[in-house]
Amino acid sequence: MPGFRDPMRPDAPLSHAWQVSLGRFALLLAAAGVVGFVLGHVLPVLAAALFGYACWQLLSLYRMQRWLRARRRGPPPEGHGAWSDLAEFIWRKQRAERSRKRRLVALLRAFREAAAALPDGVVVLDRERGVRWFNESAGRLLRLATPRDRGKRVDDFVPLAARKWLVDGPNHEPLIDVPAPHDEAMRLSFRLIHYAGDQTMLVVRDISNLMRLEQVRRDFVANVSHELRTPLTVLHGYLDMLEPDDAPEWAPMLADLRAQSRRMAQIVEDLLTLSRLEAQQEAPDERVAMRPLLASLKRDAEALGQGRQAVALHVDCDLDLRGSNQYLHSAFSNLVSNAVRYTPEGRIDIHWERRGDELRFRVVDTGYGIPAEHLPRITERFYRVSTSRSRAHGGTGLGLSIVKHALALHHARLEIESEVGRGSTFACVFPATAGLPPVGEPAP
Ligand code: ADP
After folding, report:
1. How far apart are CA 418 and CA 43, in angstroms?
2. Measuring from each residue's beta carbon to the nearest atom of ligand 1, which residues come in under 6 Å?
């Protein structure tokens, strides 16, 4: 069609409609010139032709404007040349725009319906952390209603425990096991997701069933360990009463039985320690006197290593720690005994130091080291780099798990660096706020 321009490409080159219009105009002027010449009145005839042309253009402009202003716009008015080309272009572009809009609205509706049907609660927040939109699950879990709670600030409806978590910054870990605002028995988890630059979304999940299962697992492990303790003690007692000299042919078997029953008893004790740690929400607020603790760790290491390693203490910080004597002793002595057990010979350095805002208890050994691929899983229960080596040294595979739990209870973390054949460094990193000046000194 002459004069048609692709509506999806408004920047396409001008069509030849303009050439046609200009051609017609030139033809009109030429015809008027010839008629004027024949009649002997060139100028008046030319002026009349120009006037007629201007009227026709004005009429086209008027029809175009009426069409553009029409509420229910049909196809463009019939026209000639550049005007019809322009109208055609606008019409097609509008139709393309309308169908694009319809598609977008349908897509948006589909997304909203999908988000609304999600079992997890989703709350879309604006820059001031006010509610922009939420789905049905969020309404049910957080007792939100439309339109009442649109624009409400997030701090006004999340449970108290989640408020502090919300101000802690954008890159924090999800918050788990928070009681729902209306029902203490319902446990929720919260996750803050940042997207598209400055947009934020709060995802809330009902984890009551998960927490119940977790509790069942914890109770089961604690009960089994508890039940095993008594029979093991009896077994252990009888084995201790037997003398290898009474039946020399049974001596190797008796030694093996004793070693295995000791290992079992140690596993049960470690499992019970882990259960107790898991059951705690906060560490007891005791003074953990570091100097005597460090000295006893050194003595234990020397006794366990029987002189195979040179053990040294480096105390660059005179602060004590605030927390549980029992759990911190257990965590530190696990690290020290690991260093001894996995360093056949060499050095073991125990450091207590302050670095900036942190207090560090560090155990550095020159032992076997740990291959890098094992490091991410090393603190899992029963995870060992080499099961035979761990067993040969009386390991239970639970030591580092105990360390991790004990530190978490004290808001501290475990950092591990290791190189095979060169040794390992295990550091317990505490916030400086966990430090206590030694007795008799004023608080810093
Ligand atoms: P285990 O009772 O087997 O020592 P842990 O949880 O204490 O259990 O440690 C898990 C595993 O981590 C060990 O089996 C061992 O392979 C590795 N490991 C821990 N500490 C060290 C260390 N200081 N040097 C080398 N390997 C270590």
Report:
1. 102
2. 334, 338-339, 342, 365, 367-370, 378, 384-386, 390, 395-401, 424
